[in-house]
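[Automated response] Your request has been received and processed.

Submitted sequence:
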Amino acid sequence: MCAIYKSFLSDYDQKYLSLTLSAMKFQTLQALICVEEVGSLRAAAQLIHISQPALTAAIQQLEEELKAPLLIRTKRGVSLTSFGQAFMKHARLIVSEGRRAQEVIEQMRGNWSGQVKFATSPAIALSSLPLALQAFSREYPSVTVHVRDGLFPAVSSSLRDGTLDFAITAAHKHDIDSDLEVLALHVSDVVIVGQLNHPQALATRLSELIDCKWAFSSAPRGPGAIIIDAFAQNNLSEPKLGMVCESFLALPGIVASTDMLTTMPRDLFKRNAYKDKLCALPIKDPLPCPTIFVLRRHDLPLTPASEALLRWIQHFAKQLN
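Generated structure:
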């Protein structure tokens, strides 16, 4: 809009125009996130309920302001340029913080809607989380909860860009960067698990397991591979890596159908679908007990709804300690 036309606008109209343009930019950023996820301008436009020509024009205007191309258009759809990939880190944060700001105001007014997004470890997902979600849903039925599997350090990037409100995961406290706030929630009881008919099913010492192969539940140096620490504490050579399985949903089935051993939270051992095919080895040597932490960005306040859900999770987690 030209400066001559703006001069005819009242102060109120100019403020309204500024808000309208800001809203459009916010919508454009939401669309870019959709474009990245679906790879299509048309699909992204449908998701945010505007026309494709309007979305194209908005993105082109944004590209002009940034003086950089954000999208590559091909016959198969669109993808982000290197400029677009760099810009998206900021776009996600702007959108997530904008969402939180709107939800905070609405929830302070008593309009308990919006959403809570978080990642969780299996130790909590199979124990206190179902009870917490049940209590939270009764109290705030209009709030949508998005929960996904996630372990440290994989969840760190989603916490930093605002995709997740918080994460509940095992971690070594000294490995967590200072930009993340840390709250101890629960100490996980870990067992060594194998097939019912595993040759070492009755083993009572770690030294009896030095020739076994292991399915690590995270990267070999991550918090899920605690068997490495257990072997080291008992002056044993490093356990033999059979595979790395970062899916706790798949881990019990893999162990049930192979000769590999693994470590897992006792709650996961008790509640998995392959329980009848697995056994917990009666090892007498002490095993490291990882601490489950709540992680969040220290400079990004939680919404009242997120705080309420976290209080319920803490309430039921205390019963496990």
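Summary generated for your ticket: Residues 11-38 form the longest helix (28 residues). The mean pLDDT is 85.
If you did not submit this request, please reply to this message.
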